[in-house]
Amino acid sequence: MAQSGTAARTIPSSRFAWLMALYAENFRRIQQVVDLAALDEGRWCSRGADGLDLHVDVLARHRYMLELRMSYAFADPATGLPEPSAYVRVYLDACQAEVTHCYVGQRWQDVLGTHPPAHAVFAHRLRMNTFLSKWLEHLRGAGHGGDWLPAEAAA
Known about the structure:
Layout: H1 15-33, E1 42-47, E2 53-61, E3 65-72, E4 85-91, E5 96-101, H2 108-112, H3 118-141, E6 149-150, H4 151-154
Antiparallel strand pairs: 1-2, 1-6, 2-3, 3-4, 4-5
Helix pairs in contact: 1-3
């Protein structure tokens, strides 16, 4: 049987492999939205066609890793926190990006407790990183990722 011109995708054989593949997909997508090599530590702003300013805070830049916070320039009326918001670790050497938490002070321990079962931690990581994947896809479609301005200049 002849194969089509599209590349065959391999379905990961385990849930862990699925999560690692999602991290790799998030890395590819974040590269399309954020200029990882050019942004220094600080707050940066992208104006997309959706009318919403995307803020990316480069919290730390290490040799092989970046720590980012991504959020829109508006706050949740109930909490006052940026909404949506995602803290992302980008592993430059491994070409992976993972969400560590989605709100200020909301690490997995805050959400799941101090001794959650492994399946609960896994499910939580899968949900957060699926959210990031979909959000990055939306941001790219909305035209984010072109010109980045320091947030003060964009205000």
